[in-house]
Description:
3 helices; mainly alpha; globular; 80 residues
Amino acid sequence: MQDKHAEQILEFAVEHIDKDIFINCDAGLSRSPGVLVALEQIFNGRDLSYEHRFHNKFVKNKIRDVWFKRIWFRKNGDVE
């Protein structure tokens, strides 16, 4: 996963914030839970990492890092 992939996920989530989002991948065992855990932390403040112990931590961290980098740039008036 690259920053651009995390951006696409975040843009989709923001566009559909008022709807339920179904997250899946081929096996649904690692990447999907990683996306779920990240989005729940960002948008709902819930930490589901214990419920989804085997989530892909790289995916979760990439999405969170991109989101918080976005927030930091906006807050500080910087342009990426």
